[in-house]
Design goal:
Layout lengths: L6 H7 L26 H8 L14 H14 L3 E5 L2 H10 L7 E5 L4 H10 L6 E5 L15 E7 L11 H11 L2 E5 L16 E5 L13 E5 L4 H4 L27 H14 L5 H32 L7 E3 L9 H7 L7 E5 L3 H10 L4 E2 L9 E3 L11 H6 L6 E5 L5 H12 L2
Parallel strand pairs: 2-3, 2-4, 4-5, 5-6, 10-11
Antiparallel strand pairs: 1-7, 6-7, 8-9, 9-12, 11-12
Helix pairs in contact: 1-3, 1-9, 3-9, 11-13
Length: about 425
Amino acid sequence: MSGKWKPETAAIHAAYDKRSGEGTMAVPIYQTTAYEFGSAETAANRFALKELGNIYTRLNNPTVGVLEGRFAEVEGGAAALATSSGAAAVFYSIVNLAAAGENILLANKIYGGTLSLAQYTIKRFGIETRIYDPQKPETIEPLIDDKTRAIIFESISNPSIDIADVEPIVAIAKKHKIVTIVDNTVAPYLFRPFDWGVDVSVHSLSKYVTGQGLGIGGIIAERNNLNELLIGNERYKHFNEPDYSYHGLVYAQLPFPLFTLRARLSLARDIGAIAQPFAAWLFLQGLETLNLRIKRHSESALAIAKWLTTQKRVKSVNYPLLEGDKNYVYAKKYLEGYASGLLSFDVGELEFAKRILNSTKIFSRVVNIGDSKSIVTHSASTTHQQLTEKEQADCGITPGLVRLSIGLEALEDLIADLEQALNA
């Protein structure tokens, strides 16, 4: 099935022709490791990339392929690669661009796992990470040199709930011919990265896309015409020079979206952190209703954020659509009228924050977001525990910060639960 649809339609119909095969309305689960080529010649041609087709599920799979094609169209991009987790998607997106002796620029308001990956794990690969403030674009340009390979930020940061000032970040990146990468996990549908000129988006599919905490997975999508930035660009010679693991193949000479193609043929092939068919099928189910759910999450989150501002024991509330919030101007500029179900509030003291977590009846103490079930998390002692005190502060995390992921329960019940927890 082909055609350019609105995201809501693409989420249900794109990349699958229900009139083919058995005519199933639901995308089949192709739970297989390998494929019959039919002839020795076909097998050789596929491995030599002389013809397209299924080779091995580490590289491609029909169910995973529908997810990739569908998600790319929902996001408004050219192509996508599904991975085994959101962390794998972030890792692939970085090492698809940078190598030893090179550097990336990373926003200081970022998920703790991404910060650890960038500052510690890939440091051992010889890749340097330089930190900037995504709401102060003037902090970016002094960090750029001829070894800079990516500028990375989150559309809505987790858990500080800050929104990047995307337009000037992208303008600086374009000036220096550097690829921009946004982690759009918190704002699917709500932030349209490619409309703002961002080059690559990554998501943890384990969050809002699945919507019920049913599977671990990630995805990388690239914008249309990203090839124009990669081809002939001195920063990305590995896209323009022979890849001898494919007998001298030059990616820049291929008529395909190159960023996800190279990630598939090189990284997925060699590292193997790819999405499984059953997990992909789960994500397809969630993607169909994401448009409706993300709006309900957002509406309830705004109502709860407003209620929390009236509570004497709450020192501050972070939610972008609160008038007076430091992110309000960015929310109105960059988001599609909603700001997700993620919010945080500070009660000033660690022990009080822990008491709130231990007192909730509906909110579950879980380190996930985007679930149909509401979640409460103490970030300083869990998701960001591995960071130093200064790194936590730079990420907007304090000992008294409580993060909420608002689910799909009745708003009145959620407020009642928070009220009794605040007064426990």
